Amino acid sequence: MKKLSIIAIILASVAIVGEAFIFATRKENNNDEILTRAIRADYRVYAPPLPDTLSFAGERVPLNLWFVREGLDRELISNMYYQSSTLFNIKRAARVFPTIERILKAEGVPQDFKYLCVIESGLQNVTSPAGANGYWQFMKTTGQKYGLEINDEIDMRNDLEASTRAACRYLKDLKRRFGGWTEASAAYNCGENGLEKRLANQRQRSYYELYLNKETQRYVYRILALKLIMQHPQDYGFCVRRCDTYPELPYEEVELSGKDVDLVQFAVDNGTSYKMLRTYNPWLTTDKLKNKSGKSYTLRIPTKKGTEYNTITRGKHDTTVIESI
């Protein structure tokens, strides 16, 4: 009898555990079903719209080719869903683009090249692992070749106006060498000798028909993707008001000359801080300027109220959602 009782207890326990497991499984499955329904009802990931026609710097993009469409699609997806980076690009463009646009126009370079600056640096002064520096990511030798002063005290790759002019000269040289702005853009990324070698070896003339390293293969498509998103931000889910963007900073110009200049004291003497002096003049690389050659430099300092938010944004509290950058 005892054996039967023990067996009965064991069987009953197994039955209870089994029923509990089935209940838990059903409950879990029910939770999964609820979650699945919620995702279907409330969560959306959209494929970005691709245009029927597109141009870069006045040159037709062959969207009739499947690999061109898919290359563009990849970069649109990457930048549309890399929201933080693309949002910062849109916000910074309001501060940086007016200067770039003015210089591109004066130099006879198509306005689409402002988007090359976006993908090179995110419209910031950054340094790459390879040593490229500034808004336009010049290597030291190339920057010096195109007239930028680069030494232990000065790095004009970090000056927006000077580096943009140098980039224009470089891009025009590349255009003359390769015949097209698209190929000039590719050469800007992989180097003119590298692109020329690939064009010759593969017996092609078009960037789109070349087999290239992955970075250069994606390079022009990235420019095109940022152009589309920044020209039509709302079409890609970016709703940014004018008042959300970063305005241009007001400044005054002062002349600096002489040797062994203490830039901290210079800043204080001109009613600002060393931090603001470096912010407004990022091409300075040290707090003391020996200036052995005795050059004169024009420095920018913020206006007396140029660091106050309400002052620099006066007249810019426009809550209209922007349509184009």
Topology:
Blueprint: H1 2-42, E1 55-56, E2 59-60, H2 66-80, H3 83-107, H4 114-121, E3 126-127, E4 133-134, H5 140-145, H6 160-178, H7 181-190, H8 192-202, H9 214-231, E5 251-256, E6 261-262, H10 263-269, H11 274-280, E7 288-289, E8 297-302, H12 309-312
Helix pairs in contact: 2-9, 3-6, 4-9, 6-7, 7-8, 7-9
CATH third-level topology of the largest domain: Lysozyme
* CATH architecture heading of the largest domain: Orthogonal Bundle
Share in helix: 40-55%
Could you tell me the radius of gyration in angstroms? 29 Å
How would you state the average pLDDT, rounded?
Answer: 90
Number of domains: 2
Provide a descriptive summary of the structure in words.
This protein is mostly helical and 325 residues long. It has two domains: 55-240, Lysozyme, CATH 1.10.530; 251-302. Helix content is 53%, strand content 7%. It is built from twelve helices and eight strands. A hairpin with a 5-residue loop joins β3 (126-127) and β4 (133-134). 28% of the residues are buried. The model has no long low-confidence stretch (mean pLDDT 90).
List keywords for this structure.
about 325 residues, mainly alpha, 2 domains, two-stranded antiparallel ribbon, single chain, 12 helices, about 5% strand, Lysozyme
In short:
By secondary structure, the protein is mainly alpha-helical. It has helices spanning 2-42, 66-80, 83-107, 114-121, 140-145, 160-178, 181-190, 192-202, 214-231, 263-269, 274-280, 309-312, and strands spanning 55-56, 59-60, 126-127, 133-134, 251-256, 261-262, 288-289, 297-302.
